[in-house]
Amino acid sequence: MEERSLKVLANDTTFFNKISNTLTKLLIPTKIGINGMLINMKRNSTIKVYEALQDLERNSNDVSKKEQLSNRYEESYTLYLESIDKYIMDSIYKKVKNNTASAFERNALSNYYTIVHLKDTEYLEYKYRKQKFLLDLDYESLVSSNKEKTLNRYTPIYIEKIDGIYKGIIKNYSVKLADGLRVKRANQIEIYKNIFSTLEDYIKNILPIKLEWDDEKKYEKIIKDYEEYEKFSVGKLDEKDFLEKNMILLGLSRVLFTHSLPLVAAEQCYNKLLRDTRNLIVNTKSKEKQEQVYKMLLDLIEDYNVKLLSTKVYWDKPEDREDYKKFWNAYLHTKSSDEKEILSLKRELHDTKSEFEKYKKIRKFYKMKLVELGAMKNIKNSCQTKEGKFKKAS
């Protein structure tokens, strides 16, 4: 796609420049109209080729025809995106420059700036983000125009393309996360933030459209989790709410982005949430609030060990696999919530023992809980001297 400078120059105040600016303002509506017509033409062309391809896939086994039509569809889609890009460059850019743009148009151009600046440093993300921006811009314009017939024909294309774009973005972050040894800690934290914000963006803006078009009920099993997420999508969130929301997002990602967010990357995200939740428990002063975070931690431990690790095939260390097998067999034989809680706490003590000093406070908290549950005895830390006196053991 054609790239041009996006620098907005200040208007000169000479007589001839004033005349030029006035003429430009008069011509802008015409330019917008022409670009709008061009987008409609390219969009309609893409819709027709897409529908023909879908019809062919349903009713024919001709591989050669499918390949030809598939190539035509991709070419048409590229030209369609280029027409939206041209609209931004020729119309919105000029409106911003001449101070006739709406707040929406100014914001759109600002977002466009941000994406274009990624080109030199993060080309893959630039490629995906730009396509996403252009598709979103046109989809929003269709929704606001109330062209229901065109919108109904276009939405399957939008879902297909935007779905692939989000998967590409998530996969790009997953690759970066997997390369953890070469990534600085600050950058790694930024990658985690990007993964969770992209998941939320998808679940907030795209999943509702997919659910509306889900005639085959493919996403029926995630409705409950989606409704749980919605509780955290409005209002001000505290740290506990924020972590719980991310836990739900990660759970949804195991269905929506199974291959784009592979198990290795998802495991790292779960471990990040576990670390943050442990820290929150020991740093929370309010007993009531601490109990709320603890209950959330139990859900997180179960999600991690049951939903994720139970599907893990390859383990770096055979002993870790054997340890998990013991946990899993014990979990399958639990009969009460107390038994599950005891098992989860023991699993946490096992997982944190390699960093004893780092997790000293949370391990003490876990042991107190095990004492309360009757799974551990509280032995006094004292001993008797030869003289018969008691003193605290060193």
Describe the secondary structure blueprint for this structure.
Blueprint: H1 15-59, H2 63-97, H3 103-116, H4 123-145, H5 148-178, H6 185-205, H7 207-212, H8 223-231, H9 239-256, H10 263-283, H11 287-308, H12 318-332, H13 337-352, H14 360-372, E1 382-384, E2 390-392
Antiparallel strand pairs: 1-2
Helix pairs in contact: 1-2, 1-5, 2-3, 3-4, 4-5, 5-6, 5-10, 6-9, 8-9, 9-10, 9-11, 10-11, 13-14
Give, in order, the helices and strands.
HHHHHHHHHHHHHHEE
Q: What is the makeup of the main sheet?
A: 2 strands, antiparallel
In one word, what is the shape?
Answer: elongated
Structural class: mainly alpha
Unreliable stretches covering 5 or more consecutive residues: 1-32
Please, how many helices?
A: 14
The percentage of residues in β strands lies in: under 5%
**In angstroms, what is the radius of gyration?**
28 Å
How many domains? The number is 3
Number of strands: 2
Estimate percent helicity: over 70%
Q: What is the residue-averaged pLDDT?
A: 86
The main sheet orders its strands as: 1-2
End-to-end distance: 71 Å
